Amino acid sequence: MRYIPNSPDERRSMLQDIGRARIEDLFEQIPEKLRLNEPVGVGAPVSEPDLVAYFRELAAHNATDYQSFLGAGAYSHFIPVIIDPLISRSEFFTAYTPYQPELSQGTLQYIFEFQTMICQLTGMEVANASLYDGSTGLAEAVLMANRVTRRDHFIIADTVHPQYREVVESYTKNLGLKIDYAPHTEAGTIDPASLQIDKTTAAVVVQSPNFFGSIEDLTMLAEAAHQAGALLVVAITEPMSLGVLKSPGACGADIVVAEGQSFGIPLSYGGPYCGLFATLEKYIRQMPGRLVGEAYDHDGRRGYVLTLSTREQHIRREKATSNICTNQGLFALMATIYLATMGRRGVQEVARQNLQKAHYAAARIAGLDGFSLKISAPFFNEFVVACPRPATEVMQALLDKKIIGGVALANYYPEMSDALLVCVTETARKSAIDDLVSALAG
Amino acid sequence: MDKPESRIKKATTHVTQNEGLLFEMSRAGRIGYSIPALDVPERAPEELIDKTLIRDDDLEGMPELSEVDVIRHFTRISTWNYGVDTGMYPLGSCTMKYNPRINERVARIEGFAALHPLTPAPLAQGALEIIRRLEECLAEITGLAAVTTQPAAGAQGELTGIMMIRAALTDRGDPRKKVLIPDSAHGTNPASAVISGYTVETIPSNSEGTTDLDKLRGMMNEDVAALMLTNPNTLGKFEQNIEEVCRIVHDRGGFVYMDGANMNALVGVAKPASFGIDVMHLNLHKTFSTPHGGGGPGAGPVAVTSELEPYLPFPRVARNEDGRLALDFDRPKSVGRVRAYFGNFGVLVRALSYILTHGDQGLREATETAVLNANYIAHHLKDIYDIAYPGSLMHEVIFSDKRQIKYGVRNADIAKRLIDYGFYPPTMSFPLIVQGAIMVEPTETESREELDLFIDAMKSIDREAAEDPEILKHAPHTTKVGRLDEVAAARKPVLRWRQGRAETA
Amino acid sequence: MANTPEDLSYTKDHEWVRVRGEQATIGITDHAQNQLGDVVYVELPKVGEKFEVTEPFGSVESVKAVSEIYMPLTGSVVEVNEKLNDAPELVNADPYGDGWMIVIKMDNPAQVDGLLNSAEYEDYIKEEASE
Fold this sequence. Notes:
The structure holds three protein chains of three kinds. In chain A, 35% of the residues lie in helices and 15% in strands. Chain A is of the alpha/beta class. In chain A, strand 9 (291-296) and strand 10 form a beta hairpin. Chain A is globular and about 80 Å long. Chain B has 16 helices and 13 strands. Chain B has helices at 22-25, 45-48, 67-78, 101-107, 110-113, 125-142, 154-172, 188-195, 213-219, 242-251, 284-287, 345-381, 411-420, 448-467, 469-473, 486-491, and strands at residues 146-148, 178-182, 199-203, 224-230, 255-260, 279-282, 302-304, 316-319, 325-328, 386-387, 397-400, 427-428, 437-440. In chain B, strand 12 (427-428) and strand 13 (437-440) form a beta hairpin. In chain B, helix 4 runs antiparallel to helix 12 (345-381), helix 7 crosses helix 8 (188-195) and helix 12 crosses helix 14. The longest helix of chain B is centred in the C-terminal third of the chain and has 37 residues, at 345-381. Classes of the chains: A alpha/beta, B alpha/beta, C alpha+beta. Chains A and B meet through helix 1, helix 2, helix 4, helix 5 and strand 2 of A and helix 3, helix 4, helix 5, helix 6 and helix 7 of B.
């Protein structure tokens, strides 16, 4: 085994050195009958070239030569080349949680930079070092809102990503929390005036841009929530939108969670991604996840440490703010490098291109016979098309032309059988958009 | 007397670059990106979106840097870190072993890396096959009937497992009220049990450091839903009475959850299903060497008996009659979804690559060597550092500072001094039941020379504790920053950079 | 050796009590602050909240530990030491003075008789240390 440095002879000599005759003696604490006397059953070892061939073969069974207009919580964006070599530095990717700050300043500093940029983008005051992803981040936000308000009723928009809602349900169902879903209007957004907020409501939970791609009126939603003493929790699956849209912080949000995948993280069939989590300073003691703070040594040199750890499971155990331990450190690094490389102007430029290309595509598709935009609210880079046939049929016809046209919404909203959710990012060239339009036309 | 620094064999000092924060380096007008120009006709944003919804801060504060600036920045700060590739990283309970590069290579193959999670299943057969094959491998390794790979990390696996136990008990008529957890357990165990709606009762360990059967019998009743047990436990001990433990819990209608954080001591040597446990999680970033990444990502697959199989999260990857793989959402008893899409897929690819590389023989060899290395360290240091629970050990050894306290030196001082000797310190002050714990897990991927250097360093530090304790109390002496004032950092937290703050480097 | 003023009453959870008429001032002992180390945060209740004897009413944190603080007596909170928000270190520097935590109005002043006096508390600390 090439990952074990010591040769079998060296291992035998070490055994002798510690006074053991056979390697089996080291396992004497395991009762004899519980020990395995046969191969574990995963097969013979595979050599390096054979392994690469095996995985290449499997990868070839995945769609790689299709033009895709899939979004719905995971987005195709250009990824700067320098991210991979930088995250591949072993000092980053073979380290662990920075428990010893003197020997982990690289990790701690980038997390501090990450926290800062997440605050700047979301308009919030504090951000943590990341959670698993957007969906579990939203579940954590709901639990946090329950702790902050000591109320147990939640109003969740039905325009929140259906899978996120399912995760929230799993996390809350054993804790006695009540969830009501707020239906969307014809326009595809939530009407703040229609919400049944009362004194037991802990939070109003919305997504913006929402699952249909529509931009919610966060300012009005925040006002409605705050009037009843409830919080506004905002989920964002496409944080690239923050390059052009008013930040949730500026609209009055109390907790913002987002999926950080758009910031330089490969699609990778759904993960690993990076959950972004930000809130206001006054709620800091109720936050889940790790936090990095500035600190100084005896000689006045600046450094960074994990701080406010008493919130966490390794200290507070059953009273912790979350059970999370390992988060997404390396993927927070990817997002940090992405945001540093794109920078202020790059994020604005990518957001601009998404906005423009999506609107170009939407206008062209809406001009086709029998097609229209199903939802009238303003959008960023995703929109819902009403098709003349069931959307699943339209999807299938497109597949034959090597186009994945989007997501048929009937899977999630059974009443919307004609609806196709189309996402257009900066990676879609005009020619690809035009191909989609012609394919839909006929 | 030789100078203390001359005893340090593994490490020497080297020029370290200073580097400020991204924001401090930012200069207006610098550009680090390159994307194609917009190729569709442009319209004014206000025509597309109501003006009140548009951002008006011009993203002020976000950095403006060139590509070179970015490369230098992250390269420089990376040198302030220590990783497994730098040297032995004996962080007990975290299994910091070598991360094979082949795993990185295969996870980056375009067909995986660029695959959208909502790609129709017929066009994602390769990805589904990976999930399926990994589930099968992990079922073999644990001996259990079925596996889900959806949980994003060990703690989420724990939550998923306890949720399944709750669902099964609810189906039997009563979800029950409590979960029993030993005092040596990870903090994630009680935290996960609470999110599942249970209260926690702590079982004290016996003098051998394992579960006290009499105490367990006394505490186990019809209010108890489950026992959560780490095996081998965090003291590096195999729970020798595990079968009896399971019997006691099962006799009163409870389930046994095994925390698989320490499976690096068992893979290929014993299958947990044979112990009688009902459900367990595996930490792929520990046992199966997917990189720890400075704190994640991990993955926490959960394996269960056939009785609990119906409660696994949806969707399941299922094989159709035609041999094609599909997603099965029709799981009426499922606890639901614990994460969007399919969990940390990229981590699953790496873990499968690790398992196939090793094969049956390699997995067993890895486990045996991990246990050998831990025992080797224990053997050579046991006369110098106290071992609170002596006797046979599995993959890790828990020393303490008991014999060094007389010099006024604590475990943290020993840890910080190890840094000067070129090692990442072991896990400190855990498990909580060992005062001044120093938890050492070398793993199988350390050479004898590296282990000897560690032993030598620990011996030398003990001498220093006696001769010159001050050198320990002010350690480390060779790092970019010394001990940081964590008290001040917690009293007045500064958690982000802000424009206009005094710049000090 | 920890400082244990004779004019105060104590609990086995390491709180001290200073009784003035119907009111009692409560804090944690010098021994407790010593054990905990540098205090970084103190969580206290709001004025008006009511607690039963032995119920936790707040917590005190160091960098790596949290301890709950328990009510020595039943009563309602009439005053909270707001200074601890910005200066939690007062608990270390002056546990019986500026580091006080809350003042309560006692429901049942007779409960004071059940508390330890300074000599009993010192004995208790010694006993605990020898365990």
